[in-house]
From TrEMBL:
Intracellular or extracellular location(s): Cell inner membrane
Cofactor(s) recorded in Swiss-Prot or TrEMBL: [4Fe-4S] cluster
Residue ranges constituting the 4Fe-4S ferredoxin-type domain according to the UniProt record: 101-125, 130-160
Role: Part of a membrane-bound complex that couples electron transfer with translocation of ions across the membrane.
Family, similarity comment: Belongs to the 4Fe4S bacterial-type ferredoxin family. RnfB subfamily.
Segments of this protein annotated with the region Hydrophobic: 1-25
Main EC class the enzyme belongs to: translocase
Sequence positions that bind [4Fe-4S] cluster 1: C48, C51, C56, C73
Complexes and interactors: The complex is composed of six subunits: RnfA, RnfB, RnfC, RnfD, RnfE and RnfG.
Protein name: Ion-translocating oxidoreductase complex subunit B
């Protein structure tokens, strides 16, 4: 009997603690700001850092507080900025939106120091020590951390060509229709 009681003691204590934690979660729950949750749901949640915040949750909090513009998310583009502005009931200022950017390394300035690929949190920069480095544009989020650490100023950000608007629309058969 004593052996059975000692075997059941651990699961019973664990169950009681679990039950107490469940009750605490129900009754001591802190309500979050619903506007922040709505903005977070709209953001792309890529945690790229292009907005100047470490993640989309922090950016959503700053937008809701008014310390960041609704147009602070470059990957979201103008459409996202308009949705967030409509949600908050504010207007967008003209020219406040910049598009998504990616990094590029000027090969004449790269000496292979390796600071850029050590700093990149997305592994978008490839290369070996004392060798030229390159940027994988599909993995680059344009956060700009690599530009700050390059001692030669050989890394720059430019508009992402994936989001560039084509000048002419392709048509079927190669003929242009007016």
């Amino acid at each position: 009997m004593m052996l059975l009681l000692s075997l059941l003691a651990v699961p019973l204590v664990a169950g009681a603690i679990g039950y107490a934690l469940g009750l605490a979660a129900l009754y001591l729950k802190v309500e979050a700001n619903p506007v922040v949750e709505q903005i977070t749901a709209l953001l792309p949640n890529g945690q790229c850092g292009q907005c100047g915040f470490p993640g989309c949750g922090q950016a959503a909090q700053a937008i809701a507080d008014g310390s960041a513009s609704p147009a602070c998310c470059p990957p979201g583009g103008q459409a996202l900025a308009e949705k967030i502005a409509a949600l908050l009931g504010v207007s967008l200022s003209a020219g406040s939106q910049r598009g998504p950017v990616v990094a590029a390394i000027d090969m004449s300035e790269c000496d292979g120091c390796g600071r850029c690929f050590k700093k990149c949190p997305f592994d978008a920069i490839v290369g070996a020590p004392r060798q030229l480095h390159g940027v994988i544009a599909d993995a680059c989020t344009g956060c700009g951390l690599c530009t700050a650490v390059c001692p030669h100023g050989g890394i720059s950000l430019y508009p992402d060509p994936q989001f560039a608007v084509p000048l002419l629309k392709p048509t079927l058969g190669g003929a242009r229709h007016a």
